[in-house]
Amino acid sequence: MKLQLVGMALATAAATAAAGPVNVVCQTTKGAIDIVIQPAWSPRGAERFLQLVDAGHFDRVPFFRCLDGFLCQFGFPQSKAAAKKWPAIADDLRQPALRQFKRGYISFAGGGANTRTDHLFITLGDKVESLGTQPWETPIGYVTPASMQQTVSRFNMSYGDIPPWGKGPDPQKLQGPGAADYLKQNFPALDYIQSCKRR
To answer: What sequence ranges are listed for the domain PPIase cyclophilin-type (predicted)?
Structure first.
C-alpha cells in the first residue's frame, strides 16, 4: 500500500511538471504580484503551492520576515478557514542550472530534509550565495520583474529578521487565536498577502 501511495505521488508530480507554467496573482497590502509557477523546476513544490492557492490558504498571510537584499518570507495564515495543517512534502531533485537564486525566485522555506509545508520566501537579492544550498531550497517559480519593482520593492523591511537576530515577529506567537492581535498591536506596518488565485 505504501509503495502504491509513493507511486501515485510520483505520478502526480510528473503530471504537474509536464503541465507547463501556471500563472498566479496574489493581492497584497502594497498591490498585486504576478507569479509564474514553473512545475518543471520543482514538481512537488509547485504542486503543493497550487494546492495552497486553490484552498485559499493565502487569505491574510503576513510577510513576517523581510530582509532587504536577502528574502521576504511568508506563512502563518490569519484566516481561521485557511489555518489547516499541511503535511510535509518530499524534497525535489535539485537542478544545478537553478542553483544560483535570482531576484524574484520563489521557494519553500524548510528546516531540514523533506520538511516543506506552507512557508515560502521571495528572493530579494540579485545574487544571494546562501540560498539554494539546502536540499529543500529549489525554486518553484518567480515573481515577474514588473511586480518585483512595483509591489515587492515597497514591502516594509523595517522589522528585519525574526528574534533573536532581529526585531520582527516571534514565529512562536504567530499561531493560534491570539496571533492576529499580536501582529496588529506590535507590528502594525507589516505587509500581508490578502488572497491568491490562478489566472
So the answer is: 26-147
Q: Are 8 and 16 in contact (CB under 8 A)?
A: no
Give Cα separations from 76 to 63, 120, 175 (angstroms): 9, 10, 7
pLDDT tens digits, 54-72: 999 999 999 999 999 999 9
* DSSP class of 69: T
pLDDT in tens, 135-159: 899 999 999 999 999 999 999 999 9
Give how far Cα 184 sits from Cα of 14, 62, 114, 180, Å: 42, 11, 33, 6
The answer to whether the beta carbons of residues 143 and 137 sit under 8 Å apart is no
Which residue, 74, 16, 5, is CA-closest to 45?
A: 16
Tell me the backbone φ, ψ of residue 114, rounded to 5 degrees.
60, 45
Reply yes or no: is the peptide bond before residue 164 cis, omega within 30 of 0. Answer: yes
Neighbouring-strand partners of residue 198? 24
Phi, psi torsion values for 13, nearest 5 degrees: -65, -40
- The structure's pTM equals 0.88
Q: How many CB atoms are closer than 10 A to CB 15?
A: 12
**All domains in the chain, ordered by first residue:** 21-198 (2.40.100.10)
